[in-house]
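ERR on first pass: missing label on line 2. Operator R.T. fixed the label and resubmitted. Corrected input:
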Amino acid sequence: MARTISYREAINEALAQEMERDPRVIVMGEDNAGGAGSPGEDDAWGGVLGVTKGLYHRFPGRVLDTPISESAFIGAAIGAATRGMRPVAELMFIDFMGVCFDQIFNQAAKFRYMFGGRAITPVTVRTMYGAGLRAAAQHSQSLYPIFTHIPGLKVVLPSSPYEAKGLMIQSIRDDDPVIFCEHKMLYDTVGEVPEESYAIPFGEAGIVREGGDVTVVAFGRMVGMAEQAAGQLAGDGIECEVIDPRTTSPLDTETILESVESTGRLVVVDEATPRCNMATDVCALVAQEAFGALRAPVQMVTAPHAPVPFSDALEDLYIPDPQRIANAVKSVAGWKR
Amino acid sequence: MSEIDEITLLDAYRMMRTIRAFEERVHEEFATGEIPGFVHLYAGEEASATGVCMHLDARDTIASTHRGHGHCIAKGVDVKAMMAEIYGRGTGSCRGKGGSMHIADLTKGMLGANGIVGGGPPLICGTALAAKHEGAGGVGVAFFGDGASNQGTTLESLNLASVWNLPAVFVAENNGYAEATSSSWSVACDNIADRAAAFGMPGVIVDGFDFFAVHEAAGEAISRARRGGGPTLIEVKLTRYFGHFEGDQQTYRAGEVAHARENLDCLLRFRTRVTERDLLTDKQLDAVDVEVDALIDAAVAEAKRAPRPAPGDLATDVYVTY
Amino acid sequence: MTVRGLAVPKWGLSMTTGRILAWLVSEGAEVEEGTELAEIDTDKINGVLESPWPGVVRRIVAPVGATVPVGAVIAVIAPAGAAEEEVERVAAEARERLAAGVVPEESGAVFGTVEVEGRQICYATLGEGPEVIVLVHGYGGDKDSWLFVQEPLARRHTVHAIDLPGHGGSGKRVEDFESLTGAVAGFLDAIGAPPAHLVGHSLGGAVVAAVAAARPDRVRSLTLVAPAGFGTEIDAGYVRAFAAASSRRELKPQLGKLFADPGQVTGRLVDDLLRYKRLDGVAEALKTVSESMLDGDRQAIDVTALHAGLAVPTVVMWGGSDRILPYGGAGRPPGVRLVDGAGHMVHMEAPAAVVAAVEESVEAADST
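pass 2 clean. output:
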């Protein structure tokens, strides 16, 4: 039976159910228990925002606190994966990829290819991304396009509690390295989630809303923004088809192209900065594969080409919002040659 | 050292001799232009890989460096498949997709030569963690060079291995040069092993030209790790006979190689010691030489004949499923 | 002279709003109970709202295109003689509430689970009448598939819709056909229901027929909607493809075969089924159930003889355009009522006919 739980609880439940099912699953990261070696509580934090809370006592010896040394413990998760474990390592903020990227993109991502198909590296790296928490330039980025660029990695962007649980379970069961990107502003959002375990396959987009006028492809937190925009636009008689690709690698190109073939209009909403991001990628795809169907120029709604600012006065402008999305949709819906 | 039995001694000699012959031959063949890309040769350092890996079995894993052929051979990777890989053939250890710098065989616990200096130590924290979870006494050994001893990844891994009390051994092969830069300049302390104290683990310095010294030090570290006694840092001081990579004119070196070949050859030292003490005979050792030379001849001949990867292999093996 | 507001019914668990696609009557139209009033899009499937009462459509409050919450009043129905003032008062209140987004408390279904043979059986109960009706879905379906039927039946009866093992929210372990019939019989025992009227669709039809044969003391009547187990003809390709489908692209064309008009399959219906199919254990359960249903390309389940020996009143109905279990197949029972224009999902495509058939079964049981 489904019940309403938060995005945070959905991820925690996925971890717990997979740890219950498979003794090879271990969890590690900075303060994933929280309190290692301290005189107080030994499960003090459960991750900096509480996602892994409670697992430490439920699964003794399988939730590991780490020193703040991302290269070592992300690399350790990768090494353990080559030996048959199913580690879930937390890279607390995606911004910290800079201090461990080699282990992810030169090691984990390439083992299978470099070793001629004779390696599997079933590691999951959970990481928090996105703006909105007034966390400023080094704790707020949407760097998933960089991971998406790397062959050998799979990149997951759950947009809701239902997606978060099913995609996390798939990430753990998947035999390839997965970068699981959690938007920090979504942790407290709630939705219906089955109690049972379930895996959402990678590379299959969700069609969040059907509509025949404009295709809106949105990623991660932007899915909800696009849905809000689509709700407003329906009142103006513009029906949006909102597509949530769920994973940027693999990318469900078929669903996007099929939709654009029928609407002839495309808006892509991506919180990442605009050079070489998912918006440019989807627009290039459509320009190449569905040029004949286009009835208006494509539109991209993204952050500006700038670091994430601190002041709320600026950060609120930085993040794409329903109004900007609605304006973009209107501009393509009303476009005349 | 007297406890090492005859069979083990012969195996050790065969392993070192195989590495030497492999590398000398790759050096010759590379000069003909038939081998593509970069190769970094391990000749001169054989006692290190051999002295350590003689203690390892199927439970154990190693991570290596871009100078990885010796580690591969010592951990049991098939020599013919290695040679084919270096030639970029479809029959290679990695089907021609990895090359010299990425030879691996996970079924043998060999996590790959590694093109990234300092790439291996974090991985070994992970294999050691997996071994600890498995509880069968397995250990992970990270080989790295003096160059990697200055990398953050290595220092982080030393700390993590100590904090997690992992069954890991860190083997710093200090051959005096990171590329063309002397370790006496680039390593800020006198010995890499001195750094062990900073991570709360034993640090040991060994003579890398002496198989028996390496074997003894590694044996102690590995059995401590197997018993749950935590990690060790071993610094093996040695010399490479060739340049950083093939084609390196080595103008930064001044006659050291000739001196080393003459006076610091681990194979010659081994032979002298075991024959002087009547542990093995020259005849036994010569027979191994002949056997090894034949194997390397066959490996090169087969590699040259082997098919190259097919165009259809270009984008396969990127994912298990996609 | 009752003036009544016509509310958007809750057709199934997931329905929170409905969008008015079309009004099939105009203000002033005289309607009977069961007259089709409006087409409403529930996201899951487009349904037709039928008049619960006879009278005159005095006001249409919600226009075509409006999305309104479940329970909101969208029209006013009253006898021709009812006072205009009173009609306007009800209509005005409805308009006000729609504008304000105020939704009255809905008398929703009560959900429960019982344990039968070591597995959880989920059910939803609506209504409080003395007669007990149990709705049993078909292969791959769930209690929610009765969305258009449970609510109207619940006006007079206690109506339970259950999830068979391997389906919906019930335990996913299934061994064979007998584990399905055992679950239904066990459910009746577990809730301590008086003898009940069983309604089964497709595979559920075969299940309830078998339950009636095994436990005649528990059953007052049967309503079989396009039941399996009568004759051998079946679209085996559908059965296998449904079990195998794991993506929208694979599943949607299969679902289209269920309806006379494949256009009735909405994205929401496909998504809900995908959500179900992704649950751990469902793939295995569907494989087991599909294998128990098929013998090569023909039906393996045969309840003809069991049913022939029964004394309980039975109504059998079939969609004239059924492509899964085509009515014309050999061995279909006699006396079937054909529903023109319906495919395999008669209870979704022509719910009024199914409601009428169930009521008829209930009456027949009362008169025996």
